[in-house]
Every structure is written in structure tokens, then in C-alpha cells.
């Protein structure tokens, strides 16, 4: 028997004879020093009680592993010491050796795992409040070894992924082989530091999922991160010494972790203390478009375009293998239609703006954080090898900065919420014609009925048709905007009724979703060019109500409101306003119709302050008592003529066209 084996057996024998170390179920606080040990029935618990270190068996396995887990959720194991060398039975023990190493011994005294650290004889191990197990000399702040430098499948607050550029040491997550086997599995999550920082999931040597390049606020393929930025702070370090990514939970935030599962799924989880469950705030891959390189080189993936296998070629490109694409194999990507015109420092090429996308892989891109986007365009145009460019940092809001120049195939491009702009280089003949120059007016954003918000503007089509243009906004953490858009298009495109505004056109360009309806304009919008109050919708309701009663369209009868007001004041609703094609109503019905006219005229008053709210309108419509009507039975309505409508000019293209098609509001 060699000296090392003898030493380990002596340590194990001491543990078996020590009544203090082996009190059944006894904890030993948060620190383990020389001469003490942790056996199968014992644990270390961090001072704040958040984390526990001890032995466990995952799932149906009977093998024993040393690990760290959340105290409130024992199945949420966040670190494993001996994943590839389990201990059989309950004879394992964790000790501090005389050389300052942590040793995990089995019943035969064999080492199943070791920190291989060295220090003084006074070295001790401590489980910190953030879940980090550290080894250091007693009384010293110098860490000899720490579990955060050896991640398992979980990223905790305070940990980091990346690379020490001086030593070459890397920190990455490795998935378990299965839910019952914590040995290193096939998937790992690594921070790619060759271009912009980018989190990549690998299956062996194959990339399976990318979170997208870091844009200064979040990884561009994970806009869901904006939904929990109030709970965590992200840290990305790019220095000569280190390139890394991590996060820190904010004070008062719930427990959180990021896990790579044995199937290659990445999950951001938060602990719900009320239900005592982990809630998933994000998981990726989320859909088919998150499969790395789904559409190949110069392909663009749209998760809402199942009919086209989710993939299309960027403008100026065509499928490299039409036969493969016809069989829904799009991995071969796309080829350029017209060769770029660039030689000897001169070019006629231009750039196509592709909006709302996760930036492509920057593995082979050139990154310059100290320049402007304008300079980036000039540099790209001057370099014949530059195929596209984008801003590297979006923290300035509308003022982007930094430069990413792509000199290789554009790979892993997809639409995402809050996506970024990519400028794709094309030959002059492939560029779309620019829209006719004209003054532009922005969409004013107002709430609309329902759960979503929308931006609404008024305008006229080239044929003179007055329209209301609604641009749906999409939640950062859900797919709500896309679902609402598709549902509204599907329903409204099939409905034809004289009392409903018709859907005239729709357009989808990346995350921009626009619906064009026949519209009615409140006076304050016509005067100011923007929606100032929520009462604009009330005005539109009043117009529709008068149309229903009179059987006349406001578009065909521009004096409908003034005519209705005059009929009311002269008590001639029955004679001059009611739809002549409808049989004369009974007296009781006539009273109800007169009340509806009164309510409609209240809704279309010149001043928004004089109009009722929609809640008041509902009350007046559903309550037959005249006392519930907001004004007297014969109110005196303001007779100010409506201001001339300052309408926008709209030009439309085929709404069913490619993603470059759009509706221009001028």
C-alpha cells in the first residue's frame, strides 16, 4: 500500500471515529477547516441560507455526487464536483488535506475528486452567500481555488463565462448527460470572443444556437432580456486581460439562474416564492429560426412564414440550390444575383437596409468600437471585401455607435423583436428605387381597445380614399404583437359590412406591422397633425354611430355631422336623419334612436374635453333612463366648423410582397 493511500485511509478512519463530525444530519455552518469533514448525511450552508453543499442523487440514480443547490429547491443543483466520478453508496466524505486541497474520498479512501490547490496547513473551504465554494488560507482574502472558475451547467449571479486572455483559462457551461446523470454531456455554452461577444451553444463541434452579438445592452437575439433588466444587471468585459459575460442580481430581486439542459436548451429562471416554483423568463432556441444557420448564407428566417419553410433569400440573392429549397432544405443558403462593382478604390455599389433583425454571426467580422456608424459606412464602401455593416453599440438610443463590418457570408440572420439594422451591400441594379422625397410626419402612439398598443395616423391614398393607418407595437417579452396582427388580418380581411371600417391593406416588414383602414379623423388631429387625447377614438365612434342611424357614409356625405346636429336642434330626427330605406320606427324605438343621436353628437363635439369617455358612452347606451345621459335632453352642441383636414399622403405597394415592401407615411 503506497503512502498516499495510507494517508487517505488515516483521514477516513479519523472521520469514522469522530463523534462531532458525524452527528446524524448535523450541519457544520458554512466553513470546513482542517480536521473536519462533510459526510453523506451532512451539509455546508451559506451564511444567508441561500445555498447548500452536500451529497445528492439526481433523479432515479442511486449514485452519490457532491454538489451545491438552492436551499429552497433541492432539485435545483447548480454545481457538481464529481460528475464523471460518482461515489457508490453513502461512504463518501469531503475533507481538507494538509496541503490545502479539498478532497472527495470514497469508502476505500480513493480520491473521486480534488481541487488540486495548495496552501498552508490552515487552509479552509467556505460556501459563500452567492453559491461560490472557495478555498483559502484562514484569515487571508486570497482565493486559492473557487467553484465559480469551474462551472457545471448553471450560471449564477456573480459568475462569468469567457476567457482569460493572459492565461488562456476559459469559463463555460457544460450540460449534464441526462436528468439522472450529471456527467459532462454533449452540449456546452461558450462566450465567443473572436468578434463581438456572442453566447454560442455547441453540440460537439457543431454550433446549434446563438444568442446573437452583444449590442451594448443585450445579446441581439434575446430581446426578452429587456423584460428582466429591472431584476439583473449584465456585465460584459472586453479588455486585453479578459473577455467575459456575467450578471448580478439587483437587491430585492428573486433568486435566478441560467441553465443549459441536457437537450441543449438555455433557460433563464426566476424563483417564485409564492408558488415555490421556478418560472421561465426566457428559453432558447425558442423556434425553428433559432436553429443556427437555419437559412444558410444570405438567408433570412421569419418564424411567422411557415408556408415558405420560414426562409427567404435577401434582396439581390437567390437560392443556391433551387431544387433543395423546393424540398425545404434551405441550409445551402443563397447566392448573389449580380456581382458587386468594386475595384481599385471605386464602386457604384450601395446598401440595402434590412430592419428588425438579430445581427449575423460576427465570428469573422471586423469590430471597431471607437468609430461612428457614418464612418462605418464609408469604410465598408471603400473596402471591396466588406459585404455588410451594422452599428456595434445601441446604448445611445437613436444615436448608434461602433462598427461591425462583415467580410464573410452573412449567417444566422432572423427577424426578432426590437431587432437592429443591417446594411447589406448590393450592386446598384439590385437596390430598390427610393421613395419620392416628401416631408414625413411620425406616427403618434396612443392606446387602443385591447391588450396591445398601436400607433395611429390619418392619410389619403393616391386615389383620394381617406384612411386610418395603424402600426402595431410588439411586446419585448412575448410574441403578442405578431399574434394580434395575424388575427386582425385574418378576421378583418373576410368581413364586409356597411357599419364596419374596411381593412384596405396591410404590410409586414420585419417587426413593422401596419394595417390600413377606412378612417375618420378627430378635429384636434386634423388641426395638430397628431393625436393629443384618448378622446380621438370617441370621436370616431360617434361618426360610426351616426352612419348606422342615417345609412349614409361620412366619406360620401362630408356634412353628415353638421346635418345631424341641425336635425337635432330642429327636432327633425325622424323626418330628415333616419335611414329612409328603413321602415318608420315605433315611438319607443324612435326614442331610443334619438338617444343614440344625442350620444353620437356628444362624441363628436369639437373640444375633446366636452366629449364623454368610452366608459360613459357604454353607461349611456346600456341605461335607458334619460337621467343617465350626460347632457340635457336637447343639448346645445358647439357649432364650430371642423378644421380642414391636414391629411398625410400615402403611397402603397403590394402588401403581399417581400419584406422590402412598405407603406410610406409622408
Automatic annotation (TrEMBL):
Q: What GO cellular-component annotations does this UniProt entry give?
A: membrane
Ranges for the Bulb-type lectin domain? 29-148
Show the Gene3D superfamilies listed in the entry.
Answer: Bulb-type lectin domain, Phosphorylase Kinase, domain 1, Transferase(Phosphotransferase) domain 1
Q: Where is the composition biased (Basic and acidic residues)?
A: 657-666
Q: What is its EC number?
A: 2.7.11.1
- Residues making up the signal peptide according to the UniProt record: 1-25
Cite the SUPFAM superfamilies for this sequence. Answer: alpha-D-mannose-specific plant lectins, Protein kinase-like (PK-like)
UniProt keyword Lipoprotein present: no
Task: Please list the reactions this protein catalyses.
Answer: L-seryl-[protein] + ATP = O-phospho-L-seryl-[protein] + ADP + H(+); L-threonyl-[protein] + ATP = O-phospho-L-threonyl-[protein] + ADP + H(+)
Residues in Apple domain copies: 342-427
Its principal location? membrane
Q: Which UniProt keywords apply?
A: Disulfide bond, Kinase, Lectin, Receptor, Signal, Transferase
Subcellular locations according to the entry: Membrane
Topology in the lipid bilayer is annotated as: Single-pass type I membrane protein
Report the protein name in the record: non-specific serine/threonine protein kinase
- Which organism's genome codes for this protein? Dichanthelium oligosanthes
Amino acid at each position: 500500500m503506497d503512502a498516499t493511500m495510507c494517508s487517505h485511509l488515516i483521514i477516513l478512519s479519523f472521520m469514522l471515529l469522530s463523534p462531532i463530525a458525524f452527528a446524524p444530519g448535523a450541519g457544520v455552518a458554512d466553513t470546513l477547516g482542517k480536521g473536519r469533514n462533510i459526510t453523506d448525511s451532512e451539509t455546508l450552508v451559506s451564511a444567508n441560507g441561500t445555498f447548500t453543499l452536500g451529497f445528492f442523487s439526481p433523479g432515479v440514480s442511486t449514485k452519490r455526487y457532491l454538489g451545491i443547490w438552492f436551499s429552497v429547491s433541492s432539485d435545483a443543483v447548480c454545481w457538481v464536483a464529481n460528475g464523471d466520478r460518482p461515489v457508490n453508496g453513502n461512504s463518501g466524505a469531503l475533507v481538507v488535506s494538509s496541503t490545502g486541497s479539498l478532497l472527495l474520498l470514497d469508502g476505500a479512501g480513493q480520491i473521486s475528486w480534488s481541487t488540486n490547490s495548495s496552501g498552508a496547513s490552515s487552509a479552509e473551504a467556505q460556501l459563500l452567500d452567492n453559491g461560490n465554494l472557495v478555498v483559502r488560507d484562514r484569515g487571508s482574502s486570497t482565493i486559492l481555488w473557487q467553484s465559480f472558475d469551474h462551472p457545471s451547467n448553471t450560471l449564477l449571479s456573480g459568475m462569468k463565462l469567457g476567457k482569460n486572455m493572459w492565461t488562456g483559462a476559459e469559463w463555460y457551461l457544460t450540460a449534464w448527460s441526462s436528468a439522472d446523470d450529471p456527467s459532462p454531456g454533449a452540449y456546452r455554452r461558450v462566450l465567443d470572443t473572436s468578434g463581438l461577444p456572442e453566447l454560442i451553444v455547441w453540440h460537439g463541434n457543431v454550433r446549434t444556437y446563438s444568442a446573437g452579438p452583444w449590442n451594448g445592452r443585450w445579446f441581439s437575439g434575446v430581446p426578452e432580456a429587456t423584460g428582466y433588466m429591472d431584476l439583473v444587471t449584465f456585465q460584459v468585459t472586453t479588455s486585453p486581460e479578459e473577455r467575459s459575460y456575467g450578471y448580478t442580481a439587483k437587491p430585492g430581486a428573486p433568486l435566478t439562474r441560467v441553465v443549459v439542459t441536457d437537450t441543449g436548451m438555455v433557460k433563464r429562471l426566476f424563483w417564485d416564492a409564492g408558488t415555490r416554483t421556478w418560472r421561465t423568463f426566457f428559453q432558447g432556441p425558442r423556434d425553428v429560426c433559432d436553429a443556427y444557420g437555419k437559412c444558410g448564407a444570405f438567408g433570412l428566417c421569419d418564424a411567422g412564414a411557415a408556408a415558405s419553410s420560414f426562409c427567404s433569400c435577401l434582396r439581390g440573392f437567390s437560392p443556391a440550390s433551387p431544387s433543395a429549397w423546393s424540398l425545404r432544405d434551405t441550409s445551402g443558403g443563397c447566392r448573389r444575383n449580380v456581382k458587386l462593382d468594386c475595384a481599385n478604390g471605386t464602386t457604384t455599389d450601395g446598401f440595402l437596409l434590412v430592419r428588425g433583425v438579430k445581427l449575423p454571426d460576427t465570428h469573422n467580422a471586423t469590430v471597431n468600437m471607437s468609430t461612428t456608424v457614418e464612418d462605418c459606412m464609408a469604410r465598408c464602401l471603400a473596402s471591396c471585401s466588406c459585404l455588410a455593416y451594422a452599428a456595434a453599440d445601441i446604448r445611445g438610443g437613436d444615436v448608434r455607435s461602433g462598427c461591425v463590418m462583415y467580410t464573410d457570408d452573412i449567417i444566422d440572420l432572423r427577424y426578432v423583436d426590437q431587432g437592429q439594422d443591417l446594411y447589406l451591400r448590393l450592386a446598384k441594379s439590385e437596390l430598390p428605387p427610393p421613395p419620392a422625397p416628401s416631408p414625413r410626419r411620425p406616427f403618434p402612439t396612443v392606446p387602443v381597445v385591447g391588450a396591445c398598443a398601436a400607433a395611429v395616423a390619418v392619410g389619403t391614398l393616391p386615389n383620394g380614399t381617406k384612411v386610418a393607418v395603424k402600426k402595431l407595437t410588439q411586446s419585448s417579452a412575448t410574441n403578442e404583437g405578431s399574434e394580434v396582427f395575424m388575427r386582425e388580418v385574418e378576421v378583418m380581411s373576410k368581413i364586409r359590412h356597411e357599419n364596419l371600417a374596411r381593412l384596405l391593406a396591410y404590410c409586414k416588414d420585419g417587426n413593422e406591422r401596419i394595417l390600413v383602414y377606412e378612417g375618420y379623423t378627430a378635429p384636434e388631429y386634423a388641426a395638430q397633425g397628431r393625436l393629443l387625447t384618448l378622446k380621438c377614438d370617441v370621436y370616431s365612434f360617434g361618426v360610426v354611430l351616426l352612419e348606422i342611424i342615417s345609412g349614409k357614409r361620412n366619406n360620401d356625405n362630408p356634412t353628415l355631422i353638421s346635418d345631424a346636429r341641425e336635425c337635432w336642434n330642429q327636432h327633425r330626427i325622424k323626418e330628415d336623419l333616419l335611414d329612409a330605406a328603413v321602415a318608420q320606427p315605433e315611438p319607443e324605438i324612435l326614442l331610443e334612436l334619438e338617444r343614440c343621436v344625442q350620444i353620437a353628437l356628444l362624441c363628436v363635439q369639437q373640444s375633446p374635453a366636452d366629449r364623454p369617455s368610452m366608459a360613459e358612452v357604454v353607461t349611456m347606451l346600456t341605461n335607458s333612463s334619460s337621467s343617465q345621459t350626460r347632457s340635457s335632453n336637447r343639448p346645445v352642441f358647439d357649432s364650430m366648423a371642423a378644421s380642414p383636414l391636414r391629411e398625410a399622403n400615402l403611397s402603397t405597394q403590394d402588401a403581399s410582397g417581400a419584406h422590402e415592401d412598405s407603406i410610406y407615411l409622408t
